[in-house]
Amino acid sequence: MMSFENVRLPEIWDATKDTLYMMAASLVFTIIFGLIIGIILFLTSRRQLLHQPVVYGLLSLIVNVLRSVPFVILMIMIMPLTKLITGTTLGVEGSIPPLVVAATPFFARLVETSLREVDRGVIEAAQAMGASKWDIVRRVLLRESSPSLLAAVTITAVTLVSYTAMSGVIGGGGLGDLALRYGYQRFQTDVMLVTVALLIVLVQVLQTIGDSLVRRYSRK
Amino acid sequence: MTVQKGEIFGIIGHSGAGKSTLLRCVNLLEKPTSGTVNVGGVELTGLSERQLQTQRRRIGMIFQHFNLLSMSTVRDNIAFPLVLAKLSKTELNKRVDELLKLVQLEDHADKYPAQLSGGQKQRVGIARALANNPDVLLCDEATSALDPQTTNSILSLLLDINEKLGITILLITHEMNVIRSICDRVAVVDQGEIVEMGDVLHVFLKPEHPVTRDFVDQVADSGGIGQLLRERAGRLLRMSYIGDLTYEPILYNAVKPTSVQFAILQGTVSRMKQTPYGQLIVELIGSDAEIERVIAVLRKDGLEVEAV
Fold first, then answer.
1. Per the CB 3.0–4.6 Å rule, which of A138, A145, B157, B209 could disulfide with B195?
2. Which residues on neighbouring strands pair with residue B277, listed in sequence order?
3. In this structure, are residues A129 and B31 in contact, taking their beta carbons and an 8 Å threshold?
4. Cα A138 from Cα A159, distance rounded (Å)
């Protein structure tokens, strides 16, 4: 019979709030940067509106490099940058820059793929109507791919939850940190189980919200 | 190639013949490698991107696959070019209402394209193309994805627009039926070259290039006639007539004073846009002198007569 004697609810609640905060804040920045990079990737790729093979190749390489570095290592690698931005490498604030740096290239690729799925004919029709490139990005590409972009945001949010848990390794705070400190270092399995259960619930909730939004906005 | 103001000009060709490229050069969706494009006195090929965007608003375009914004309602799709032209909200709504009425989609204004039939989608496409009161409408295989009945309704809408609004229409198609129904002039394109061009009636009745003959046969339905004709012993003549002649008993009147007999082997009487026309392949039986006399009378009455 398992007892949950080590589980202290206020601490769990604080950790949950930290996780949610880390995830939400880094998601916002990831969406902003990822959209910009994703749009540039799409526009500069072959036979698209801007068609800049060199720019595309360079940006694509950076994205690939960032995506190949495991998150645990990336966190440590960019610590100087993190310190520069937030003044600390610890706690919730210290986790956000590495989370954004890790998730942005991932999200940018998803954005690129979503935009690629927009019917070329529709882009052409907009051009024929005298739309500028900016009009096309804003009024055609983003609008037409919005269900797909929502799905991409959902996937990224879920990925960020698991990243936040990992940031516990460098003292990042949140549920992952709790699981690591109590569950791993002090052998308090009950705390670990509770945190894992909470993470599962969080992922489920995110995915369900995302799916229902996608369904609601799909018009095909 | 020059298209006159206010006419409906058709370009026909097999797929891959280059007709689509030709059409897309008109609004510079495709940049011509050489030569110039001049629409309504403005040379598009020499313009900056900004200027080109403004000029493109004078050129509407509709597509085979409609190319509507799937995430926008019918109303917003039609409003799209008006938004680009930065119309005020009230003007925009007024114009969209007019256009919805023009294409008879008032009841579908708040639907999304996925909820519409092909014909309705093309009507949205037409309304959208006309939103900025263009001088020219480009139609890129506009009816090729539609069934025959819907095709006819879209074609009569286009004809209507041409007559009421005076918009010049330049269309491409691979269906001779489309050309016959609404075009004034036609150009036949084969392997990137214009091989024949002229009034639809003329091209229809006297096709010169083999590709043109192919297309004319599409609608003439003369399959198997060649074999039949070779077996006949009498003088074979092809006679073509247009306009009011179509309804006159010309052939009967011509043979009546002679002893020549005739047999009609093949015949078409149809209508090209508003003009009735007919074409007959007739076998005449009698003495050479009498047959010559009949031919002379037929020609005098205004028929085109040629030996087959």
1. B209
2. B242, B270
3. no
4. 27
B243: left (phi over 0), alpha (psi -120 to 50) or beta: left
The answer to whether residues B96 and A165 touch, using CB atoms and an 8 Å cutoff, is no
Q: Which of A119, A129, A132 is nearest residue B81 as measured by Cβ atoms?
A: A129
Cβ atoms B190, B179 nearer than 8 A: no
Least confident of B41-45, B157-161, B195-199, B200-204: B200-204
**Count of A–B CB contacts within 8 Å?**
69
Supply the ipTM of this predicted assembly.
0.86
**Alpha carbon distance B5, B24 (integer Å):** 19
pLDDT band at residue B77, thresholds of 50, 70 and 90? Answer: very high
Residues of B in contact with A219 (CB under 8 A): 70-71, 112-114
The structure tokens listed for B111 are: 């639907």
Which of A129, A142, A215 should we substitute to test contact with B (largest number of B Cβ atoms within 10 Å)? Answer: A129
Q: Copy the structure tokens of residue B41.
A: 């006195």
**Nearest one of B192, B209, B196, B173 to B17, comparing CA atoms:** B192
CATH architecture of B225-307: 2-Layer Sandwich (3.30)
- Write down the CATH number for the domain with range B8-217: 3.40.50.300
Domain that holds residue A123: 9-217
**Ramachandran category for residue B112: left, alpha or beta (phi over 0 → left; psi -120 to 50 → alpha):** beta
CATH number of the domain that A36 lies in?
1.10.3720.10
How far apart CA B159 and CA B143 sit, in angstroms, is 13
Condensed to tens digits (0 to 9), the pLDDT of residues B171-208 reads: 999 998 899 889 999 999 999 899 999 999 888 888 88
